[in-house]
Each structure stands twice: as C-alpha cells, then as structure tokens.
Design a protein that fits this description.
There is one protein chain. This protein has helices at residues 8-11, 42-52, 70-78, 90-100, 117-121, 129-138, 168-175, 178-184, 187-196, 258-267, and strands at 28-32, 59-62, 83-88, 106-111, 140-151, 158-160, 163-167, 202-208, 214-218, 220-224, 246-251, 277-282, 284-297, 300-321. The protein has two domains: 8-144 and 316-321, Probable inorganic polyphosphate/atp-NAD kinase, domain 1 (Rossmann fold); 147-314, Tumour Suppressor Smad4 (Sandwich), CATH 2.60.200. It is built from ten helices and 14 strands. Strands 1, 2, 3, 4, 5, 6, 7, 8, 9, 10, 11, 12, 13 and 14 form a 14-stranded mixed sheet that branches. β1 (28-32), α2 and β2 form a beta-alpha-beta unit. The radius of gyration is 20 Å and the shape is globular. By secondary structure, the protein is α+β, with helices and mostly antiparallel strands. The structure holds magnesium ion. The site of magnesium ion has 7 residues, from loops. Residues 145, 225, 239-241, 243, 245 line the site of magnesium ion.
Length: 336
C-alpha cells in the first residue's frame, strides 16, 4: 500500500482556484442516457440550477446505442464547457470518462439506474439528482486514477474507473437480464451469478508489473481501481481511487464447496491463506487465457477475448463532487 500523496491540497481544486476569469459565463454539458428510468426531469433541473448560479444554458446531449458517450463527450469538450455531467449508470460514466481523462475538464456524476458503483465508492448519494447537479456545478474537485485496458493487443485502449474482469464476473455481466434489472435491481446480478457458478476453470497466465508469468487454473481475474460493490461489500479490501494502484484479484474455487471458500475469504476482507482468492497490488498487469473468456469493463460486456493488459494512470480524471466530510482526500469546503 502506498500512502496518500502529501500534495493532497494540490489535488483539491475549486473552480475559483483554477483562476478562471470571473467574467466568462460558465456552462455545463449534460450527457444523458435516455434509457435509464427516472421520475425527475433531469434537463429541467440542470437548466434551473445553471441559470440560478449565473451559468449559461446547458448543452444537452443524449447517448445512443451506437454511441454510448464518447462522441457526446468529444462534442462537450469541443464546446469548451466547464463541467460534463454524466447522467446514467457506470457504463455512461465510463465512456464519458474515457474522453475526459487527461483533460482539464471536470466530470460530474448524476447516478441513474441500478449499479452506480463509482458514485457508491465515492459515498455520493445515488438518489438525489438535484444534489448531484448542485455538486457538479459548485462542488469540490479531486483527481482520481483511471485504469487503461488493452484487449487482445488492440491499438486503442479503453479505460475503466471501478473494476474490470475476464471470466466469471464478465460472464455474469453478459448474462444479466435487463428486464429483471428493471424489476429487482441488483438482484438480477445474483440471478445471473448463480446460473454461472458451475463451469470449468481456464488456464490463465498472469504477469504483475512486468514480472515473470505465472500460470494458474481459475475462473476469473479481476482488476479493481476501487473496491466496493453492491451492499457495501468491499471485494478489493482497501483499494482506493487515488492510490495510484491497481488491485488484481484471482478467483479459483476448487471442488464443489469452492465458492463457499471464495465467499468466506471475501467476507474476511481477503484475510487467510486459502488460495481460492488471491490479491496483488501493482501498476501494470498482463493476463492471458488459453481459451477465449468474457470480458467486462465497469459492467459493460466487451465480448470474448484472451488477452488483457492493465495500466493504472494516476490522478488523470478531474471529478467534481459534493464536499464530503468523511472523505480524507477532500480538504477544502468550496461553499462560502
Ligand atoms: Mg486504486
């Protein structure tokens, strides 16, 4: 584990601290996933709060099946907006973040739908659209890590913010029924999880930080940028969004009762010697499977592949969020 950087204060920037000219009218972009169910008129809230704060009329963009957020985020960047609010689930956030990472433009989160694991890991309220927009316009800022992932040695890398995996976890994501997700929320993942429990392990080689490859037979390899999933369960114990580290977990249940050992070690926060669950912390990792396995990034299915290369990019995404007293990374209260 590395300690938090001692230059935390440099990471906390309020819009005022950026030295932006006060005379220029600020503007937010809203990138909305229109498929996500909500009782609120999200556009009306963003417009109302923007005008109330003296900001310009917001730029409204919607995601589509063909473009789940990349093109819209590029358009927002071109328009020179001050903050891009991603209104949707982790998938929308991931696609928008892929474009914003490495730029000076801040991302705001407006959680809609079931998972919203990034927001949950940041202790952001997932049921308060108005509060989310207020935070996006006037909240504090922090830098978080993103993890670049290269699948099957493709030229372009993707990014993820929460977790990604090859094998069981990705098979569950690919198999989760959308209709059930709308009805019972995260229990839909449990349904898919149970259906996917039986199965054969695959021969997978893993190299941590460019080290020697080790081969094991396992069901899943996951990379985590932070650790919490639904119900507050921390499957990467102690993983943080700003520790500059990627956490790797291997899942290799053995025998009929193997999954109980995996669950037991998860609930014990990884303590114990049982090899069915192992953890590594690193900056890069390379994973190669003998047979093609399902791949997922922040819950988005990428189909099957055999090779994943992970690289953490520390402090590369600027996040605008509520001032959180519980969060040690946030030092300054931007409200007067
Ligand atoms: Mg981390």
């Amino acid at each position: 584990m590395t300690s938090l950087p001692d230059t935390e204060s440099e990471q906390q920037r309020t819009p005022e601290a950026e030295g932006q000219p006060k005379s220029r009218t600020r503007r937010a972009a809203l990138i909305l996933n229109p498929v996500k169910p909500t009782d609120e008129d999200i556009r009306a809230i963003v417009t109302e709060l923007s005008l109330e704060q003296g900001w310009a009329e917001p730029l409204f963009l919607e995601t589509t099946e063909d473009d789940p957020g990349h093109g819209q985020a590029q358009e927002a960047l071109k328009a020179g907006v001050d903050v891009v609010i991603a209104a949707g689930g982790d998938g929308t956030v991931r696609c928008v973040a892929e474009e914003l990472a490495g730029t000076a433009t801040a991302l705001g989160l407006l959680p809609l739908g079931t998972g919203n694991l990034l927001a949950r890991n940041l202790d952001i309220d997932v049921d308060d659209p108005r509060g989310a927009v207020e935070a996006a316009l006037g909240g504090t800022e922090r830098m978080i890590d993103v993890v670049h992932v290269n699948v099957d040695r493709a030229q372009d890398a993707h990014v993820f913010l929460v977790m990604a995996g090859l094998g069981f976890d990705a098979a569950v994501m690919a198999d989760t029924r959308d209709d059930l997700k709308d009805k019972v929320g995260w229990l839909a993942y449990v349904d898919a999880g149970i259906r996917n429990l039986p199965g054969k392990p695959s021969k997978v080689s893993i190299s941590i930080d460019g080290g020697k490859r080790t081969t094991r037979r396992l069901r899943s390899v996951m990379g985590g940028n932070c650790g919490k999933i639904m119900g507050g369960l921390e499957i990467f114990p102690g993983a943080k969004l700003n520790d500059g580290l990627l956490d790797i977990m291997t899942i290799a249940p053995s025998g009929k009762l193997g999954w109980f050992a995996v669950l037991g070690k998860l609930l014990a926060r990884g303590k114990g010697k049982d090899p069915s669950l192992e953890y590594f912390q690193c900056k890069t990792a390379e994973v190669e499977s003998e047979t093609p396995l399902e791949i997922e990034l922040d819950g988005d299915s990428l189909g099957k592949g055999t090779h994943m290369a992970f690289r953490v990019e520390p402090d590369s995404l600027r996040l605008r969020m509520p001032y959180g007293k519980k969060d040690p990374a946030i030092l300054a209260d931007p409200t007067p």
